[in-house]
Specification:
Domain Aminotransferase class I/classII large: 31-384
Bound molecules: pyridoxal-5'-phosphate
Keywords: Aminotransferase, Pyridoxal phosphate, Transferase
GO molecular function, one term: pyridoxal phosphate binding
Number of strands: 14
Family: Belongs to the class-I pyridoxal-phosphate-dependent aminotransferase family.
Distance between the termini: 36 Å
Strand order of the largest sheet: 2-9-8-7-6-3-4-5
Structural class: alpha/beta
Strand content: 5-15%
Shape: globular
Oligomer: single chain
CATH topology of the largest domain: Aspartate Aminotransferase, domain 2
Pfam family, one: Aminotran_1_2
Length: 400
């Protein structure tokens, strides 16, 4: 069959392998799933029921491409309160999760071969979305306080780029947060070098310690930041509901692209989520999530401290779903997972290689702590620790 060139890279993104690595007898630190036991199932069911009860004949009808206005108003009010923005519903487009925001932004900006800066490592689904537009990637390392701006400047002096993709809050996969200073400096660079910043923030509301800091969007002086949010991690991923904030001119073009892609996000879901937000406190639900996830995160950090060999390094993130493990240079975490960790120790994680556009870093791994019980975290990390100690005792060339 004669498939389009855009499928060539997308089909090797590694997304399938990531989800295949899970079966019932495996303790999986691989997924990026929220804890299903914490879904607000009853309240969401009540919201759907109430939406049907109140229906005047429009609930099952087409809505609009921009999306249900009362919900967009609530999202704007929430972002104004928490992020210090001054938005109205007109600044917001409802999307099918943040994922669609990634696709639509790439569709808006990229011609084949155009430059895109991505973080190294980054969200694998971001690469999967962008790959379809056949960009040229420039990879900039992520440090403990976010993007390495010195490396970024070197790229910008040499290459023209259309947009920079960043996950500044509890970065997927490293769990790091970009400092306020870097957020400000990044906007200045975008102004100076004329590019768009794609700020992807699905974990932003899941902070377990430390102070909330403003989004990159709060420092946007020239309308260059496209800011994505999502209900996936804070309510439920199956809603497939997120939002995109952009200036009116960009939003108009993006909305036209969305109309061509899927006409609109589900009106039924938007009405029900709006009802949920009217009758429930999202902040109270977030407190429940944060309390539970903080316990799990602490359990993982404690288990890693106890069981990891000295040569392994890990961080202690202040929020989100993930922490990042670094093994000695040359150690191949993908080979280790497929040949030893998964078949023998029955534990999985996400190896670093496919999380880098360059595929150049093989000695890292992403560990998820939200969708695993505290007990499994302890058992799984203990098993990971002994498998790693064994593997590291052998010459590294066995794994390189
Ligand atoms: C950084 C990041 N962006 C976007 C997404 C996609 O989320 P959604 O379910 O909102 O489409 C995810 C999901 O894991 C993510 O981690």
């Amino acid at each position: 069959m004669k498939l389009a060139n855009r499928t060539i890279k997308t089909s090797e993104s590694g997304l399938d392998a990531l989800f295949a690595a899970t079966s019932a007898d495996v303790i999986s630190f691989a997924g990026g799933y929220p804890d299903g036991q914490l879904f607000p199932t009853k309240a969401m069911q009540a919201a759907f029921n109430a939406s049907f009860a109140a229906d005047q004949g429009t609930l099952l009808q087409y809505g609009t491409t921009t999306g249900y206005t009362p919900l967009r108003q609530k999202i704007a009010a929430r972002l104004n309160r928490l992020d210090g923005l001054s938005l109205t519903a007109d600044d917001i487009l409802l999307t099918q999760g943040a994922q669609q925001g990634l696709d639509l932004t790439a569709r808006l900006l990229l011609n084949k071969g155009d430059g895109v800066v991505v973080e190294g490592p980054t969200y694998i689904g971001g690469l999967a979305a962008f790959d379809a537009y056949e960009p040229t990637y420039y990879e900039v390392p992520v440090q403990s306080d976010g993007l390495d701006l010195t490396s970024l400047k070197k790229v910008l002096l040499k290459h023209e780029i259309k947009f920079l993709y960043t996950i500044p809050d509890f970065h997927n996969p490293t769990g790091t947060v970009m400092s306020v200073e870097k957020r400000q400096a990044l906007v200045q660079l975008a102004n100076q070098f004329d590019f768009i910043i794609l700020e992807d923030a699905p974990y932003r509301d899941l902070r377990y310690s430390g102070e909330r800091i403003p989004p990159v969007k709060a420092f946007d002086t020239e309308g260059r930041v496209i800011y994505l949010g999502s209900f996936s991690k804070i309510l439920a991923p199956s809603l497939r509901l997120g939002w995109l904030v952009a200036t009116p001119a960009l939003l108009k073009a993006i909305t036209a692209l969305k109309a061509g892609a899927d006409v609109e996000s589900s009106h039924l879901v938007a009405v029900a989520v709006d009802d949920y937000l009217t009758h429930n406190s999202l902040d109270a639900h977030l407190d429940t999530l944060k309390t539970s996830y903080a316990v799990k995160k602490d359990a993982m950090v404690q288990a890693l401290t106890q069981y990891m060999p000295k040569a392994a390094h890990f961080n202690n993130p202040e929020g989100g779903f993930f922490l990042w493990l670094t093994l000695p240079e040359g150690f191949d975490t993908e080979k280790f997972m497929l040949e030893s960790l998964l078949p023998e120790a029955k534990v999985s994680f996400v190896p670093s290689k496919n999380l880098f556009a360059s595929k150049s870093v093989i000695n890292g791994a992403r560990l998820n702590f939200t969708n695993v019980s505290v007990e499994d975290i302890e058992h799984g990390v203990a098993a990971l620790g002994s498998a790693l100690s064994q593997a590291l005792a052998q010459p590294i060339s066995h794994h390189g």
